[in-house]
Amino acid sequence: MAWIYLVIAGLFEVGWAIGLKYSEGFTKFGASAATVAAMGASVLFLGLALKTLPVGTGYAVWTGIGTVGTVILGMILFKDPATVGRIACIGLIIAGIAGLKFLTPAA
């Protein structure tokens, strides 16, 4: 269950990172409220995951999911550059997340 919580936390992290862009510096009420709610949900689920997962693994995977998701959505939604180098770096982050998942004892 801890890994499921961690994935959910990472997805909420993507949500709040993208929400920051839409909130335009917290000047748009709806986007700002959604961003703050996603921040809270992300930390809540991270906390649940860290009850049983090692803190280093949990934090690294959480930020990795957030990073990969945010970069990909940035490319799709905001036309951020989708260069070969950026995509290769995303692959390295995914490899790191997978490595931590498979090398961490079951929780």
Question: Mind sketching the topology for me?
Answer:
Layout: H1 2-23, H2 29-49, H3 55-77, H4 84-103
Helix pairs in contact: 1-2, 1-3, 3-4
Globular, elongated, flat, extended or rod-shaped: what is the shape?
flat
Q: Over the alpha carbons, how many angstroms does the gyration radius reach? A: 15 Å
Mean pLDDT: 95
Low-pLDDT ranges: none
Q: Strand fraction band?
A: under 5%
Specify the number of helices.
Answer: 4
The string of secondary-structure elements, in order, is: HHHH
The total count of strands amounts to: 0
The secondary structure category is mainly alpha
Terminal residue distance = 8 Å
Number of domains: 1
Describe the main β-sheet briefly: none
**Overall helicity:** over 70%
Report on this structure.
This protein is mainly α and 107 residues long. The chain has one domain (2-103). The protein contains four helices and no strands. The model has no long low-confidence stretch (mean pLDDT 95).
Describe this structure in a few short sentences.
With 107 residues, the protein is mainly α.
What key phrases describe this protein's structure?
mainly alpha, 80% helix
